[in-house]
Amino acid sequence: TRPLRLGEIARVVRDEMERVQVVDLHTHLFPPSHGELMLWGIDDLLTYHYLIAEYFQTAPRAVAPASFFALPKAFQADMIWAALFVQRSPLSEACKGVLTTLEKLGLRQELRARDLSGIRRWFAEQDPDAYCEKVFSLAGVKYCVMTNIPFDPTEAKHWRPAKKSYTRRFRSALRVDPLLKGDWETVSACLTAANYPQTLEGARQYLRDWAETMQPEYLMASTPHDFQYAGKKGNGGSCQSSKDGKKGGQEDMGQGCGVTMIDKSPKGAELLEKVLIPVAEELSLPIAMKLGAHRAVNPSLGTAGDGLVAADVGDLRRLCTAHPQVKFLATFLARVSQHEAAVLANKFPNLHLYGCWWYCNNPSIIREITAMRLEILGTGFTAQHSDARVLDQLIYKWSHSRRVIGEVLAGEYVSLAQTGWKLTREEVRRDVERLLGGAYEEFMQK
Ligand code: REL
Ligand code: ZN
Q1: Could you tell me the CA-to-CA distances from 392 to 43, 118, 335 in Å, in that order?
Q2: Torsion angle of alpha carbons 147, 267, 183, 231, nearest 10°?
């Protein structure tokens, strides 16, 4: 409780950053109980889509993506290891991530010898359950939120008919991209397969039932690059909520809301306004959005071929304005969107910004975004999420982020101290906890 001296600040912030148990509010991880969906170990680390993209940047012309993807995963990993770690220095953030992960797992000798076989042998000896726990504790992650897609049968089978059990390290999030982007084709195929009526009420009930099964933290989706939301038009047209008492049966399409979401089919245009929003409101579930991905810029590369677009922050403003009773969590992919997004979060109590996503999850950009957010939002945001797809990535993503965020925070505290403001270790701890999970939990509870 004693005030910190100026010269102590950097060290205390570093210590607190090291010890804080973080909440990782968006990942693509699965628990060991989800079998093949759980990615972990060296071959999954090396075939991360960031590294596949980097590999193809310089791969010889003779290696066609289709033939690369047809190879067994270990062969793909061999090729990436040779190209990015042996024939070049592993300077990119994604490459460095592999090194940090192995180093923190204690594989220093293998790393020094660049001994991929030795690394593989070590992983082969790990038991998935024990290893999973080891990674969470090494990474200092209290719990992570998964991404759970009911529309995908390979995932759905882990929830129904019987829900697989998993530890408190995992929480769920119900991913609803087809509803956000108005993809009626996918939605209606799922409704048919599960014996729900082909109506908006059928879609609402489908969503309610999945929420009942998954008990998610929030509903979530990434917007497509051409996403546009124009809000509610004129005549104050309020949307029919799901409490309108209609059960099944055909509803009028294209009327009522005055929503001018640009979309293909009348039902598609209404999936956001008449299905997603009302169910979110009814179940008090926030909607988490990720804006700015441009899918399949190079389709031959699969997930590695997804790019970036500067999303219109105005879409999020219109959503927050039209639905003040719904809570939105949001993160933007483009660096240019970050400033406008921070100002928006400063205006809307129903909006919470989180993390430096994907192409922004690089130390130089984390540094810049975190400083700007602290300057505009104080501690009212969540500084990072990992977006990890491979369990072991928790280790490097959190270790790299802790360091950068800590350096930025320490700099801000020094400028406070220079005004004569006295700061204690406990206060540093409180702020650090808020930035790496507490602010999210506060937002979820409010
Ligand atoms: O959840 C998303 O939409 C994105 O985070 C992913 O599509 C993306 O591939 C991600 O894993 C990158 O880090
Ligand atoms: Zn993601």
Answers
A1: 11, 17, 26
A2: -70
Closest CA to 41 of 73, 11, 65, 3: 73
| 20 close to 97: Cβ distance less than 8 angstroms | no
Instruction: Check residue 202 and give its pLDDT.
Output: 97
Tokens (6 digits) for 57: 């940047």
- Residue 389 near ligand 1, beta carbon < 6 Å: yes
Q: Is the dihedral of CA 32, 34, 35, 41 positive or negative?
A: negative
Give the HSE-up count for residue 45: Cα atoms under 13 Å, Cβ half-sphere: 27
Rounded distance from Cα 9 to ligand 1 centre (Å): 35
Domains annotated for the chain, with CATH where assigned, are: 6-42+95-445 (3.20.20.140)
Question: Cα–Cα distance between 254 and 445 in angstroms, integer?
Answer: 35
387 lines ligand 1 (CB under 6 A): yes
pLDDT grade, residue 298 (50/70/90)? Answer: very high
- How many other C-beta atoms lie within 10 A of the C-beta of residue 80? 24
- The residue whose two tokens read 């998964």 is 146
pLDDT in tens, 52-89: 999 999 999 889 999 999 999 999 999 999 999 999 99
